[in-house]
Amino acid sequence: YYSRVGTAIESSKTVITVYDMIHEKFPEHFSINDKTSKVKEESIARADHVIAISESTKADLIEFFGTQPSKISVVYLGFGAPAKNRESLGSVKSNDRDFLLYVGGRGGYKNFSGFIEAVAQSEKLISEIDVVAFGGGAFTQVENAQFRVLGFKENQIRNVSGSDQLLSQYYSEAKAFIYPSLYEGFGIPPLEAMAHNCPVVSSNTSSMPEVIGDAAEYFSPTDVASISLALENVIYSNTRIADLQKLGKERIKKFTWERCAIETLKTYRTVLQDK
Q1: How far apart are CA 217 and CA 221, in angstroms?
Q2: DSSP codes joined into one string, 210-239
Q3: Cβ proximity of 208 and 202 under 8 Å
Q4: CB within 8 Å of 9: residues ≥ 6 apart
Q5: What distance in Å separates the CA atoms of residue 44 and residue 232, rounded to the nearest whole number?
Q6: Tens of pLDDT along 50-83?
Q7: Rg (CA), the chain
Q8: What is the phi/psi pair of residue 202, to 5°?
Q9: CB atoms within 10 A of CB 255
Q10: DSSP 135
């Protein structure tokens, strides 16, 4: 991770990879005693070169730290789809109801709360669709209170955790995958969804359009009505679902770990030649 002092021998070149600028964009979500941003800035200034995992992250580096563009190379991450379970676990649906899938942490800039508000705002969605939040820990008292106030039925919103094989089954059975985050440095879950033929409905901010391309129905994450409309446009249109499935299959071909490794090695070699 980021270090206040150099850890390499003086004669060596150093390259640092930056995944996101969450501490800089959302300082209110961190303790005033959290020194990550300061140490990060010092580490980046000390490095000979920087790898950013998206053009969005590169732009944020330039904006917040004034890093010279010539010092930054963009190398996209790859992804590996969760292994599919060869033995059927049976359907993961509850009472045969369609569900929206959300994956990962839910707090702050992840905007899970805004997504839930959007579902509740739509009479069709709240009456016909369940929500599954995979991972991220059990729902808090605040979250459960929000669900009740918004009118969700008991167990209509469920938290599930488990193996990659179980996650794979949820991706495969979901009506759509929702990615309501206000900010991501890259964003692998939408690619995982595409690999399982699951249509993606996503925020239109930061790196999301850059990574997801045309393989998603987009919305403004700060506009609850926009989220509701995007969800309805996908869930209630077999044509749109088929289009997104087709586009997703093509999109995931752009992001492999082999390509990431080759481009990372190329960057290291370039840095070594600049003596």
Answers
A1: 12
A2: HHHTTSSEEE-TT-HHHHHHHHHHHHT-HH
A3: yes
A4: none
A5: 43
A6: 999 999 999 999 999 999 999 999 999 998 876 6
A7: 20
A8: -140, 155
A9: 17
A10: S
- CB contact at 8 A, 147 and 157: yes
Residue 264: how many other CB atoms lie within 10 Å: 15
Q: Are 200 and 235 in contact (CB under 8 A)?
A: no
Give the model's pLDDT for residue 34: 93
Are β-strands 49-52 and 72-74 bridged in parallel, bridged antiparallel, or unpaired? parallel
Assess whether pLDDT exceeds 90 at residue 88: no
CA–CA separation, 187 vs 211, rounded Å? 7
CB 48 within 8 A of CB 16: no
One-letter amino acid of 103: V
Q: Whole-prediction pTM value? A: 0.91
Q: State the Cα angle at 267 between 265 and 270, rounded to 5°.
A: 110
Neighbours of 199 (CB within 10 A): 24
Q: Grade residue 84 by pLDDT with cuts at 50, 70 and 90.
A: low
Give the Cα separation of 152 and 189 in Å (integer): 26
Residue with tokens 């987009």: 218
Identify the CA nearest to 167 among candidates 143, 188, 183: 188
The token duo for 54 is 């998206």
